[in-house]
Amino acid sequence: MELLFREMEQYAAENHVPIINERGRKAFLQVVREQKPHRVLEVGMAIGYSTLQIAVNSADDVKITTMELSEERVKTARSYIARSGYDDRIRILTGDAGELLAHEAVQDAPFDFVFIDAAKGQYVDYFHKIEPLLSDSAVILADNVLFRGYVCSEEKPPRRFKTIVKRLREYLELVTKTPGYSTVILENGDGLAVTRREKSKC
Predict the structure, then answer these.
(1) 20 is annotated as contributing to ligand binding
(2) What's the pTM?
(3) Domains of the chain: which residue ranges?
(4) If one looks up domain 2-144 in CATH, what number appears?
(5) Does the annotation list 96 as a binding residue?
(6) 97 known ligand binder
(7) CA-CA to 5 of 20 to 30 Å: which in 85, 173, 192, 200?
């Protein structure tokens, strides 16, 4: 698998495909290994790099439902996944994540691990649609939540990033203030928000 991962990293660099960066990867994998999930939902697959990292580091019976808007990236991801030995454990959904979360993903729930790495301005919407699909002790890992440092900075972001920064701040406020959840923000990479669903004591 290491050779396949290196090949994917090279492809991503040469073709400007965003994958979880080296600084954030260690923290990302630590959370996955601690959780050892059985049922995973991934929002934003790109070329399948994080998908396969999750597959390798999860429980032996892991099943992953992943979604990606770009048909071209799905095609590339399928070629890598077919060589990985995990293709029978990964279900790929192609299309808009907001729509897929409301319909197609439901049949694979409940999920004990969710990785969000898609349209940053839609994280709040994703959370609301993901919440009914979670197991009692699920973990939601959201990438890029600090967005180049602008989210926690008093410095005004460039106009083209203003909406994204505003919505990511809304997401962090949501996951830190919603009852029944606890959130830790890791500053590794571009920021990872680790949100854990707390079991009811009733």
Answers:
(1) yes
(2) 0.93
(3) 2-144
(4) 3.40.50.150
(5) yes
(6) yes
(7) 192
